[in-house]
Amino acid sequence: MISSALNSWFVANARDLPWRRDGFGAWGILVSEFMLQQTPVNRVIPRLEEWLTRWPTPASLAAVPPSEAVRAWSSLGYPRRALWLHAAAVQITQLHDGVVPSDLNDLLALTGIGDYTARAVAAFAYGHRHPVVDTNTRRVIARAIAGVGEPSPPSRGRDLDAMGALLPQSAQEAALFNAAIMELGAVVCTSRRPHCAVCPIRDDCAWRAADYPEYTGTRKTVQKKFAGSDRQVRGLIMAELRSTHRSVTDADIATLWSDAAQLRRALASLVADGLAIPADDGYTLPT
DNA sequence: AAACCGTGGTT
DNA sequence: TAACCAAGGTT
Q1: Active-site residues of A: which are they?
Q2: Domain-terminating residue out of A171, A193, A217
Q3: A92/A24 Cα distance (integer angstroms)
Q4: Boundaries of each HhH-GPD domain copy (predicted)?
Q5: Which pLDDT band holds residue A45 (cuts at 50, 70, 90)?
Q6: Integer distance in angstroms from CA A27 to C1' C1?
Q7: Which residue is nearest to nucleotide C11 (CA to C1')?
Q8: Which of A16, A41, A128, A227 is close enough to A122 for a disulfide, judged by CB 3.0 to 4.6 Å?
């Protein structure tokens, strides 16, 4: 029973993270989950605390223009998430009386919330019994249960079934286990150099039992190079937009990157995303 | 459903 | 140093 072993280990070894504090609240947990989508814990914590001090409720965020959310997002990356979080706050305010919903389908209907985030909020904020599957969970299951070094590409049904099969019956133990297996993947059963010597389930690990076979399945698609990419150029334009409260002119933008065609392409995609708004004299953040 | 979307620390 | 990787979501 890896769930009881992992839960005991987690109770004794969990990192002291803000969203694990007593009474952190559903809104704080929702904000943290948005920020943690592909951004490391250590970079999230300071932005999260600023954010919640300034906007302690969904309604307080919904009351300001999206530009303020994008600015406060700072350099967390993927600024569309700031826009989506603001949109979710508006939806929560208008559709749910300002209360973060606890129902999976209600959560999934919010902008920027997918399977992982909906389940994380329902489980961690409300204690509901749902399998929660993130990249850490998938890696631990691949190793400890399936005996392979890496998870195969994500498959919603398979992943939820695999986690569901391990989930304790009681909602409280289940919520703890969802967090515990993620934590194990984050700090012990890491992607590159797993710390098997200190793993609380090493004696139950199928990968270790098979003497750590090399992964032979489908590799996940490699991330495209960032340097010189459209993503880099978008990032430069966004930093410029965030840096001022007046509009950014074409001349300003031209100084950011030498390839004019790529600059145009990046700017057009930001406009399409609603992150840059054409104005008389240039571009602004969405107000 | 594969590709796209930021940023910065680690190896 | 270049590649890898990070509590995903959307199209």
Answers
A1: 33
A2: A217
A3: 18
A4: 35-187
A5: very high
A6: 42
A7: A273
A8: A128
